[in-house]
Amino acid sequence: MTDQSTDPKAIGGGRAAGKTASGHLERRAAVKALLGDTSDALFISGLAGAKSDVLEATGADCKRVFPLVGAMGAEAAMALGLALAQPNRRVVCVTGDGELLMNVGTLATIAVLNPPNLSILCVDNEHYGETGFQRSHTGRGVDLAKIAEGAGIQAVRTVIEESEIPDAAAMLRAGNGTAFVLLKVGVSDPPGISRNRDAALNKNWFREAVLGEA
Fold it and tell me: Is the separation of the CB atoms in 40 and 90 below 8 Å?
C-alpha cells in the first residue's frame, strides 16, 4: 500500500485516506480560482463535494446556487435547460466525475445546442466520494475532456497544474460557446459546507435569484 505521508497524490484524510489519483490540486482552492468572481452567475451544482466546492466560493446561503440532493447525474441537463431559458445570464454547472459519468450523453445534446452562456466545470478526483470513495472510471483511463471534445464541444481544457488555471478560468467566462473544463484534483474529503436542505426553500431562493421577488 502507498504510504500517504510520502505520496503527494494521496492527500486525503478520513474516508479518503490512502486513496490516490493522477491529479494533485486541492479541490476547494482550485475551484475557487477557476470560478473567480461569482457575483453574476447562476450555479447548478452536483452532490456533496461539488456542492460544497461552489458554496465555499459563493457563500453558503447564496441564492444563485441550486444544489442537487438525491439527483446524481442530473446537473448538466438542468444547467443546459437553465442556460437556454436565461440566455442573458451566465450559467455554471459544477459537477463531479462520478456524476457526469452517470449522464455523459448529455454532453452531446449540449454540444449540438451550444448555448454560449453555459460553462461546465467537472471536478475529477477519480473516485465516487458520495458513496465511499470507490475508484471511478476516470481512474481507469476514461477521459471526460476527450468525451466532451468528441461530443462536439469546441472549448475544452484539462487543468492539471496550477499554472493552467488562469487560461481555463478565462475560457469559462468567454461566452463564445459552451465551455468545458476538466479539473484533475487529488483525493481529499474536506468538511462539507452547511446549508439548509429544505427543497422548497432552495427552490424559492433560486427562483428569486433568477426572476426576482414575486
Answer: yes
